[in-house]
Structures are given as C-alpha cells and as structure tokens.
Amino acid sequence: MLMTALGLMSGTSLDGVDVALIETDGRLVTRLGPSDYRPYSDAERALLRQALADAAQLTNRQDRPGVLVEAERMVTVAHGEAVEGFLSRQRVARLAIDLVGFHGQTVLHRPAQQLTVQIGAAAELAKAIGIPVVHDLRAADVAAGGQGAPLVPVYHRALAGALDLPGPIVVLNIGGVSNTTYIDGDVLIACDTGPGNALLDDFVCKATGEPFDRDGQLAAQGRPDQRWLDEALQQPFFAQAPPKSLDRNQFAGLTLPELSPADGAATLTAFTAAAIAKIVPLLPRPPHSWIVAGGGARNPVMVQMLRDYLAPAIVSCAEAHGWSAEALEAQAFGFLAVRALRGLPLTYPATTGVKIPITGGLIARP
User: Fold this and answer.
1) Distances (CA, A) of 322 to 8, 59, 91, 140
2) pTM of this structure
3) pLDDT higher than 90, residue 195
C-alpha cells in the first residue's frame, strides 16, 4: 500500500529545515513530490551551536542541560513552521499526508557509548501539525550495538536501482559530516567518511561572519596547506574499515596554522574531499560513479576537488540524474518513516555494524 509522507531534515550543517514529499510503499519510490526549506536565523543557529557545546557532557540521552531545553523548543517550532510553510506554498492538503518522518537536530553522536541525541519534541510537533510523526529513528540501532549512522543507504539503494549506470555506484552526501553508500548489485556498504561542511562552515563563520562559503568563492581564491592536510589525514579514523560514524565535532580539535581566510577555506575544502577519497581503498571494488548530494554539491570548488581526488571515477551531482541534491535527505526520512511504520529494516550489518537488519523509530500521534 502506497503512503504519502513528508520527510523533515535538519542536518549537522545547522542551516535550516528541509521538507520533501515522497510517495512510497517503503520499498519502491513511486513519486518524488515538491520540497521546501525553512532556514534557521542567525540567532537560531547561534543557539544550536551553544546546544552542541552544552551537549558535549551528556551521558543520558534524555537530559537537557544548559540551553538544550530552549534549543529543543526552537527546533520543534521551526519544524512545525516548515511543515505549515510547505503545505501553504505547495498547496498540499493536510489530509493528503499520511505521516511525517522527523529526524530532529543531532547534538551528540557517540555510538561507542551507545549514545545518540537528537532534540525535537515529536509529540508536540504531531499535535501542532495534526499529522502522525515517526521519530527517534537512530536509537534502536545504537542500542543494538550499531553506529546509528548513516541511516539513508536503504533509500539511496531504492533510488539507484532505477539508474542505468555501471557499478559500483557510490552515493555521497556532504552535509555537516560526509557519508557514503556503496552499491554494487546486492552489496550495500555505508559509512561516514569524515568532515563534510561542518569544519569549513565553522571556520568561515569565525573568519568572515558568513555562515558558509557560498559557491566556494572564498576557497577558490586560496591554496590548500598541503603539509597540514598530510598530517590531518593521518587520523586513525580514515584507515578504519566501514561501517563507522562520526559526531559533528569529531575533528573540531584540529587547529589550522595561521592562514588567510581564503587559504583556510581552501585547506578545509580539500580536507573534506581528500577524506572522502580515503574510503576508496577500503571498498570491495573501486567505484565507477559517484553521485554527490547535500550542501557540498552546491560548492563547485569542492566538487572539482572531488573529481581530482577520485579520478578516474565519474563524479556527478544528484540533479544530473533527476534527483534533488538539497531534498535528498529529507526525502530519505519520509521513506524511512514508512519503512519504520511497516516494521521494515532501516539499517544493516554493512551499513551501521548492527548484528542483524533492524527496524526502528517511534510514532507520535496528534
């Protein structure tokens, strides 16, 4: 039975809330509908950055120290506004939506401690929008010994199955953290590869006051510090075989030398691309094609660096295949919500390291 779901995603880039409509039975994607976006304001983004800092000492995923109570309230309201804005602007009837997939905002992810924390009050959101909300999609995997991330590979597989491309194919999502899904016939392998936009965004914000390097304009004017890159790429994480996952601030302790804003941006952009390329020797076969989605796909400097590091593989952006780079993760959480409602697996041994395929998620009704 087909269901119409809205997927909501607020990623580790802290840019805002993506909303996307999808029609699916949890196995096949029958329609990709419109998408929308509700940006975070500068004040909201600053609140989330403080929430990340206050969450660093968490040992219980239900605790909300410091500004986390305020941040959770803001995240809930922002997601409600995102849904209402979508329904209004896209002229979609509320009764046409069967359920909402709600990821929430990750503030801490430490699977080695069986701890993953996403803020956002699903019960309040369901009441506010009048639609059932599927949420807490990572916790069951982490509790069962998995990494709890990445969650989207099963959706990537559903999309890639409709492409006429030789394999292996890798779907690469560059959000705050970068993650990959390797697809080769029935083989599905996934992991986080390293930093995505998080280090770059944080650096640019501190150096220029801008929230991110728009279109890679700053990095395009600079030169990467190769000595720093060579040393940073020696981090043990990059040699670790998948599955593996990261907290947004895993590499925040790495300190750049005194560099101009342009050279710093170029260095961190190259770090993201080079870290992604480090996964290639750890895969069963070298990928033939890479499909890039997420915020990084909008950065032409990062995409060109990926082409350089990943050659001779073909690197293309999601739109070249009729996908939406910006809405892909939101679509995925609509897809996952339907799978969760039906008790279908969300994660697998080769995607998160969980021992057996496992479903997850909870449902909050209006």
Assistant:
1) 20, 42, 23, 33
2) 0.89
3) yes
